[in-house]
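A protein record pairs a chain with a discrete description of its three-dimensional fold. The shape at a given residue is found from the number at the same position. Here is what such a record looks like in full:
>
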Amino acid sequence: MNTAARAGLFAGALAVAFAGAYGVGSAVGPVTDEDTAPAHGGHAAGGEQGAAEGAGKKGDGHGGGHGEDAGPAAGGLQLSEAGYTLDLDTERIDADSPAELSFAVRGADGEPVTSYEREHGKELHLIVASRDLGTYRHLHPVRDADGTWSTPVELPEAGDYRVFADFVPTGGPENGLTLGGDLAVAGDYRPAALAEPERTATVDGYEVTLDGALTPGSAREVEFSVEKDGKPVTDLQPYLGAYGHLVALRAGDLAYLHVHPNGEPGDGSTEPGPEVAFSATAPSTGSYRLFLDFKHDGEVRTAAFTVTAGGGAAEGGEQGADGEQGAESGSDEEDGGGHSH
């Protein structure tokens, strides 16, 4: 799996870069024609190419963020990029109520985009996360012929949310784009504090352990190990072409990075667990929230971790998304749905 630089750089924004994976892959879901797409590095930029194509496009002082060496470009910090715009038809919903999220991606001519390249078995991946990083959803919207996308969504807490559309438009930037827009969720708003770093997250009898460290400007190994009832899980199921799926969001600005590790089911070397490992680079100090999706026994589950870059070993948070202990499970809905965390 080769990692590629995400097109464009957002001023002052850096994200955790998860380039090339080590050991087994990471994503979850049933094996279908869509789900056996080769796993690769998503839109992460790694090494010299990431620095050159990402931060190098900005003038001095813009790419470094917190004074560290420029790293891979962060995504999702703006509504428009490279002539494409995320047009959110749904800008406000009520908390804890079923709703329909509708949007379009418009090209430079203002018309909805109707042709996409498939990435990890999908034309577009949609992520919704609360600003306090307490709620996270990975959804699979359905596109109408006119280019309008829609998906059901229900968000448990009021507050400010960010919607990320991750896609590769046909004829557009070959490394794809991540555009982001705001979503207001009405209700009684009580922002949660970011979960404290811990090394273990639990969900539905599964225990996921994070081992490794994040160091600004330096690639380090970060490995997840999955157990159930005290026994290693060695039969993780493929989902979107791999055994694990990782989204990283930086606390404070929700800079987005969506990656997959190297290796894929059936390649002769990638084992279906219990380890899921990545080479991780944090180009700036600070806190990050990692959402690791894995599938076992037919269900997609997410282990959520808080990690600190530049403050010692990387550790995972026991508090999962939505404020629950560990992480949540979600039904596996390949078309028009997704999984909630």
